[in-house]
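Consider one such protein record:
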Amino acid sequence: MENWDVIIIGAGSAGLSAGIYAIRSGLKTLILDEKLAGGTISDAPTVVNYPGFAEISGGELAEKMTTHCRKLGATIHDLEPVNELDLMGDTKTIKTTRASYEAKAVIFSTGSHYREIGAKGEKEFRGRGVSYCGVCDGPFFKGKRVLVVGGGNSAATTILYLSGIASEVVVVHRRNSFRAEHTMVAEIASKPNVKVLWNTEIQEIKGNKQVNAVTVIDNTTGQSRDLAVDAVFVQIGEAPNSQLAKASGVETDEHGYIKIDIRQHTNILGVYAAGDVTNHPVKQVGTAVGQGITAALEAYVHIRRPYYRK
């Protein structure tokens, strides 16, 4: 059984930021992730709203954070899923597919996963024309006609990225206006190869071996029609990866997000949460970084009990 001061579950922006501050605070720090370190920010083609970088790819930003964290001395075990947790005692026990660990504090930064639209054919054609990551799969559809579902920031980022690759980008949005940032909405409007279908939803995704069409319905008129497309990029937000925390006694809200206070505390002493898995209302890399920092410093207070917080 390996002993650590703090174990951080999740190596995205929040987890890596927590790792940087935990190790700088003198805490023996382990970060675990079932995937490669970096988190979902790695999927973003460009990041234009993170302070200090006018424009940077999500992959490069994630790599810089990971390298910084490792350079300071944090131990990162990626591709090591956590299977079981016991968080109720003063010493927390974490079991993974490889080993068992003990820690004095635990930080959940498990992030979120892409939401599905639930249309017929979506699961069948996943990886065969249905994608949830524009930067990952967009290059496979260079010069082709693609469709993007959604109207928030993630959808807008994907639309702009694909507009430079595809011959045409059709956007299906169930509302009559975008919810994305004003600057991105204005840029989308300037793209001649982007066509937006307002008040519209996908009923079915069709194809043979690959996607070749979708059936959409206009919610205003009630009329359905088929559109020929080569790919469908679903960008309708994300859902929290909180199942493990909830099963371990950590309280979540009605949407599955971990409940936190202003200092990132959960309902269990010595257990904290940060980033997109929490019920913080803003889901951005900048807020995830700030929450990770706060969680790490609160873990330090819990473990070392400095004079200024006794």
About this structure: The helical segments are 13-24, 58-72, 134-137, 153-163, 182-189, 243-247, 285-304. Residues 274 and 291 are 5 Å apart (CA to CA). The chain has a mean pLDDT of 96. The chain is about 25% helix and 25% strand.
